[in-house]
Amino acid sequence: MPLIVQKYGGTSVANPDRIANVANRVIKGVMDGNKMVVVLSAMAGETDRLINLAKELSDPPDPRELDVLLATGEQVTVSLFSMYLRSQGVDATSLLGHQARIYTDRAYGRARIIGIDTGRIREELKKGRVVTVAGFQGVDEVGNITTLGRGGSDTTAVAVAAALKADLCEIYTDVEGVYTTDPRVYERARLLDKISYDEMLEMASLGAKVLEIRSVGFAKQYRVPLRVRSTFSDHPGTLVCMEDDDMEAIPVSGVAFSRNEARVSITRVPDRPGIAVRFFEPVAAANIVVDLIIQNTSIDGLADITFTVPKSDLAKTLEIVRNVAREVGAGEVHSDEKIAKISIVGVGMRNNAGIASRMFNALAQAGINIMMISTSEIKISCVIEDKYTELAVRVLHDAFGLETPPPKR
Amino acid sequence: MPLIVQKYGGTSVANPDRIANVANRVIKGVMDGNKMVVVLSAMAGETDRLINLAKELSDPPDPRELDVLLATGEQVTVSLFSMYLRSQGVDATSLLGHQARIYTDRAYGRARIIGIDTGRIREELKKGRVVTVAGFQGVDEVGNITTLGRGGSDTTAVAVAAALKADLCEIYTDVEGVYTTDPRVYERARLLDKISYDEMLEMASLGAKVLEIRSVGFAKQYRVPLRVRSTFSDHPGTLVCMEDDDMEAIPVSGVAFSRNEARVSITRVPDRPGIAVRFFEPVAAANIVVDLIIQNTSIDGLADITFTVPKSDLAKTLEIVRNVAREVGAGEVHSDEKIAKISIVGVGMRNNAGIASRMFNALAQAGINIMMISTSEIKISCVIEDKYTELAVRVLHDAFGLETPPPKR
């Protein structure tokens, strides 16, 4: 009997009508002869409502207590979901993080799953029940409630699927699957039949919002076949899986973009060994993630250093960097929030020379200036002016022919 | 260091402002050098909101899943409460039913506490923390969430106080304490300094709503001193404790009333042995609690049987009784919902003759007809027409001089 783990996000369970609608999909899975585990998020808007309530009493709220509070969101949906299934004659039981024995570390608000004891889940499945599991939450070794952070229900679903060695993990969401790029930005975006874990990881980290990045990492590590599909249609969506020959034949699978970063430049930095560390060490110590870095050395022994950080960390970064610049006798510190990062991703890139130059050419022909470049084995990212974001997406999508499905092999 | 358990009801934690207000009272307790455990209800209205949500999906909702849903109400208040305390520099931690290890049977919706493992609570107290415990909820032996039924937070508080051998259990509510009768019915009602467990048990079972009856039974069993007082004033309220000489000197401590019952009469019942059982056995089998019973035997070998049941069970009762009446060849079945039960309660009654006749006289002089009578060692109840309820309360309150505080001894 196949075992399927399904995960439904907040918009899919936003109200009683939608819960009933989604539950009927689960019932179909049962009728088709599957064992079913259903991981649920909180109703859309509920987590924000709870955070606002907390902030009325304490800002910032204590992390441990905030997790206790937020965990109620998923507790509400799993109980409602299970009682609906039972009212339809389908035996079901809800399990919260501690009942499903999803063990995490104690990093409240961003806990990591360290193990799942599947005893109770298996016991309920053996009784022929649908098991609804509260997403997003776990429990530490002494029973404190923890949450996994935004998007954590995806991680719960994949981790539960991995622990149960499920045949498939389906992530239901409000889009049809994974597209070659955001269809709201380019109408020619094509829904992908499948994509490799590595490509999906890059896409997620580069700004695609369809899947939470940790869940993809988990799926890759445990080789859980992942299907991303829509709650509101019957389209099979996109399979995220191990890469195969088909995928390697395609140089570029998708175009991703992000407007979440800002650029910081320091001019006329004395060019001596260890000078970069002086800047980046205190930035890292402040838990700020630096993405692209460029250092141009000039003839007079002075260098320009440019890098990007999340926009939300820009103010803090500038404070740190200006202090260091004064100490080391550098020139000026500039920043620019009007930038975007455009990336192309594809495992086929490894075997295809000239992909980078095709990218640069396409952007150049559209009159888009490249400010910074970063590459990895399966992706190339360029920082450009943010007003060119949509244009760049379209140009690159066309340049690599992403609109056309690859030939069947 | 004294250990105090405080319980705050739903109106006391109805919104963030009130939570902060109540928390400041807890902080004062800490500053005064006490160890504090705080048991909280859900915000007023929250439990009803959740029940309505459940009924949109399933009516009646599955009992196990309903308990999972309802338990979120208290989870929200204990987390908010603890984060507020922490923001004020008072170390605090919330514990849910399963974390506080409040073990119950598996009677979802009306579970009984079978034991509390106080290890975790004591551990947190030892760290100098205020412990906030979610009221109303527990966990069965395999970790299923259970709830104790309406008013269950009182029971949680008393059970936790008993298990911890607390010095005092304070029940904070929206009234000043226990009165000689309902002050909304008679403005001369007097706030009692103290009342015995037994009197409080009778008062609660006879319609006084200030304390949940199971919690009083628990307090009596484990001799937990219980103080009922107002969240919104500094009056010390009423102490519920073991009876003492003061209490025994007073024949009547309070007047209680209830309009929740209906009367059922069966005329011309053949008067042979076992005939009453024919009626009451099927009624009991339907889980209907019969209160007062009167049987009048007449000379012609036919009897009239009259009894009271909760109004909410009247329709079901009549259905059962009419069937039996046909079978045994009895006369007619009548019912009357316009009745009230008026009771006087007092441990001093045991040593004072003539209390019953003083009661009957007082009612008679006010022109109030007594339809049924029931007595126990420390209470006398009369069923009357419900339109006389307020009048009867006033007449009896005056007749036994309840407005005047007893002389200090």
Shape of chain A: globular
- CATH domain class name of the domain at 3-174 in chain A: Alpha Beta
Overall pLDDT metric of chain A: 93
Number of strands of chain A: 20
CATH H-level superfamily of the domain at 3-174 in chain A: Acetylglutamate kinase-like
Largest interface: A-B, 38 and 38 residues
Please give the oligomerization state of what you see: homodimer
Largest sheet of chain A: 8 strands, mixed
Helix-and-strand structural type of chain A: alpha/beta
Q: Evaluate the radius of gyration of chain A.
A: 24 Å
- Are there runs of chain A of 5+ residues with pLDDT below 50, and where? none
Helix content of chain A: 25-40%
Per CATH, what is the topology of the domain at 3-174 in chain A? Carbamate kinase
Give the percentage of residues in beta strands of chain A. 25-35%
N-to-C span of chain A: 31 Å
Plain-language structure description:
Two copies of one chain form a homodimer. Chain A has 409 residues and is α/β, with parallel strands linked by helices. The first copy, chain A, is 35% helix and 25% strand. In chain A, the strands form five sheets. Chain A has an eight-stranded mixed beta sheet, sandwiched between helices. A four-stranded antiparallel beta sheet of chain A has the order 13-18-20-19, with helices on both faces. Chain A is globular. The two termini of chain A are 31 Å apart.
